[in-house]
């Protein structure tokens, strides 16, 4: 009887899961069909850029997103590529009268914001309007809305203009409480990625480099905002450093915004600018809807291709996933682009704090092979540091934004010792048998000997020498010259260009134009984005459980989720690393 109930229950559960899966797949198919349908825009419409989700390099394929399904299926976030494409499309669209910026705590890096901001400035050449409204205006949000013709801030809202900051979490105290020792191996005075494991605050070299590149980013920020608001940099610096703005009224007083008003007042102004009467209906077109509107092509069909290979996330060994740069996967993508006769040039778009030294070298090798056959240009986004710089340094030309964070040419290794934690905290003991003196090296369940530490340190130094030698060759420097600006030090894009680590200051489009020029294509080319994004069914069958888990954790942990994410990154580190600190967030 027990067996009968067991098999009956298993059958019921199996049928339930089958029908649930079938239902979700059906919804996905319907959503995919709906998302492929062309959207028609009414006259006197306004494109609303409500950037309330994280901004990624590319727009993920997410048919569920079109239906607004609430139970956590599908990807979240906007793609920088789609945001820029939509702004360009709106510039030429006679039915779009202007853009409504509705941003607050925008979740994006400074270089990402730079690319959006430049598109907005270019959009204004069409003589169409840009109106912004904020309940809360963060420093990053203000960098975007400062280009607007009208800026409304809620009377009860908040406005921030007090400079940039970067915060690092330190785990030394936690590790001591857990009785976990950590063996640190590194090369580079400024290589600060390992500091959170053995310090409780920044070292002086680390504080020096962070202060330097933050001031560089802040100076560039103030220069651009000053230009947009018809102010001097000195005026803005005084306002920022003296914390003169405490309220929306203060922002209005100092000319940082044009209006203190409510959401409906901003909409009324937009109606007037659109030529509509007070009672007329105005259509706000969301970004998710507008990206499905058919656009106009700037050029005729061409058989020539420029491959843009997007490399975003931590660099890891193997295939990786959608949120990381797998050494094997991306080496293969570059190899295929090299062998494809239709692809005349390659742009490697890097947005990475680094990661596995071995995976970085695997990708570097393919870049070296590719540049022998066709132009290869690097385009740096928010981060292209350490391993991120490693995969870019072999390119013919390196293009970075002034506010890109790059450099960090250094390596490190970590081998923890959990023996104390297992023995004293959990009551677990271990014993071992081995055929040789070092058969269990590396191990995380006993203390390393001094000799074993020297073995690992020599390996780290060997990889650092290889890194700097290759970087010096790629940048046409002597090793001594390169090492003066290496040592793991982090630079802004401006600082990196001054020191020869970067060739050109600009964005992705600048890198594509350089690639076209090098390949002698003129305007006779099309861009091919790689790697190819996965289909709905591939997404569903592969990552739905992971996505649901991530969304659930985000909802449960709220503002604490980034700290949980940092701990996860620490636990995933394998092998010798070339990367920035675990989390370096500029805000």
Please tell me about this protein's structure:
By secondary structure, this protein is of the alpha/beta class. It has 2 domains: 45-161 and 245-291, Alpha-Beta Complex (2-enoyl-CoA Hydratase, Chain A, domain 1); 305-579, Alpha-Beta Complex (2-enoyl-CoA Hydratase, Chain A, domain 1). Strands 11, 14, 16, 17, 18, 20, 21 and 22 form an 8-stranded mixed β-sheet that branches. A 6-stranded parallel β-sheet has the order 9-6-5-4-1-10, with helices on both faces. Strand 16 (376-385), helix 15 (387-392) and strand 17 form a beta-alpha-beta unit. Helix 4 (110-123) runs parallel beside helix 5. The longest helix has 35 residues, at 2-36. Mean pLDDT is 86; it is low at 70-75.
Q: What's the layout of helices and strands?
A:
Elements lengths: L1 H35 L8 E5 L5 E2 L6 H5 L10 E2 H13 L3 E6 L8 H14 L5 E9 L1 H7 L4 E10 L6 E2 L4 H6 L3 E7 L7 H4 L5 H26 L3 H9 L6 H6 L5 E2 L2 H11 L9 E4 H4 L14 E8 L1 E3 L7 E3 H13 L3 E10 L1 E3 H15 L4 E10 L1 H6 L4 E4 L4 E3 L3 E7 L1 H7 L24 H25 L4 H6 L5 E3 H6 L5 E2 L2 H11 L7 E5 L5 H22 L3 H12 L4 E3 L5 E2 L1
Parallel strand pairs: 1-4, 1-10, 2-3, 4-5, 5-6, 6-9, 11-14, 11-22, 12-13, 14-16, 16-17, 16-18, 17-21
Antiparallel strand pairs: 7-24, 8-19, 15-23, 18-20
Helix pairs in contact: 3-4, 4-5, 8-9, 13-14
């Amino acid at each position: 009887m027990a067996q009968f109930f067991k098999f009956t229950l298993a059958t019921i559960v199996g049928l339930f899961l089958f029908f649930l899966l079938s239902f979700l797949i059906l919804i996905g198919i319907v959503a995919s069909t709906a998302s492929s349908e062309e959207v028609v825009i009414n006259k006197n419409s306004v494109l609303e850029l409500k950037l309330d989700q994280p901004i990624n390099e590319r727009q993920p394929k997410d048919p569920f997103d079109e239906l607004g399904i609430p139970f956590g299926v599908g990807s979240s976030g906007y793609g920088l590529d789609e945001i820029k494409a939509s702004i360009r499309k709106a510039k030429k669209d006679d039915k779009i009268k202007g853009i409504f910026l509705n941003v607050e705590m925008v979740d994006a890096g400074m270089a990402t914001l730079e690319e959006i901001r430049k598109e907005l400035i270019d959009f204004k050449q069409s003589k169409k309007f840009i109106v912004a409204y904020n309940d809360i205006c963060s420093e990053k949000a203000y960098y975007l809305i400062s280009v607007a013709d009208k800026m409304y801030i809620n009377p009860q809202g908040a406005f921030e203009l007090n400079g940039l900051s970067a915060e690092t979490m330190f785990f030394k105290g936690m590790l001591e409480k857990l009785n976990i020792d950590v063996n640190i191996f590194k090369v580079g005075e400024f290589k600060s990625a390992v500091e959170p494991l053995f310090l409780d605050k920044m070292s002086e070299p680390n504080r020096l480099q962070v202060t330097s590149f933050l001031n560089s980013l802040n100076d560039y920020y103030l220069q651009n905002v000053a230009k947009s608001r018809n102010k001097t940099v000195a005026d803005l610096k005084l306002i920022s450093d003296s914390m003169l703005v405490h309220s929306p009224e203060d922002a209005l007083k100092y000319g940082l915004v044009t209006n203190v008003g409510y959401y409906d007042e901003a909409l009324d102004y937009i109606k007037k600018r659109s030529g509509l009467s007070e009672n007329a209906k105005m259509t706000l077109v969301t970004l998710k809807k507008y990206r499905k509107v058919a656009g106009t092509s700037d050029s005729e069909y061409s058989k020539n291709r420029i491959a843009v290979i997007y490399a975003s996330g931590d660099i890891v060994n193997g295939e990786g996933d959608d949120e990381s740069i797998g050494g094997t996967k991306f080496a293969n993508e570059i190899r295929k682009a090299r062998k494809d006769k239709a692809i005349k040039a390659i742009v490697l778009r890097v947005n990475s704090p680094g990661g596995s030294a071995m995976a970085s070298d695997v990708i570097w090798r393919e870049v070296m092979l590719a540049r022998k056959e066709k132009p290869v240009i690097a385009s740096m986004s928010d981060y292209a540091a350490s391993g991120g710089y490693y995969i870019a340094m072999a390119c013919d030309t390196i293009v970075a934004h002034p506010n890109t964070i790059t450099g960090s040419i250094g390596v490190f290794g970590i081998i923890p010792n959990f023996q104390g934690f297992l023995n004293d905290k959990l009551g677990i003991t271990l014993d071992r048998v081995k055929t040789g003196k070092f058969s269990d090296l590396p191990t995380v369940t006993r203390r390393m000997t001094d000799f074993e530490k020297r073995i690992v340190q020599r390996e780290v130094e060997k990889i650092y020498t290889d890194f700097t030698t290759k970087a010096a060759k790629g940048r046409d420097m002597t090793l001594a010259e390169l090492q003066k600006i290496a040592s793991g030090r982090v630079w802004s894009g401006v600082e990196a260009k001054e020191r020869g680590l970067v060739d050109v200051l600009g964005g992705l489009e600048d890198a594509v134009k350089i690639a076209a020029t090098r390949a002698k294509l003129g305007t006779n080319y099309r861009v091919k984005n790689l790697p190819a994004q996965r289909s709905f069914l591939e997404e569903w069958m592969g990552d739905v459980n992971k996505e649901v888990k991530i969304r659930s954790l985000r909802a449960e942990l709220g503002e604490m989720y980034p700290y949980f994410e940092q701990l996860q990154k620490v636990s995933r580190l394998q092998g010798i690393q070339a990367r920035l600190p675990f989390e370096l967030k500029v805000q």
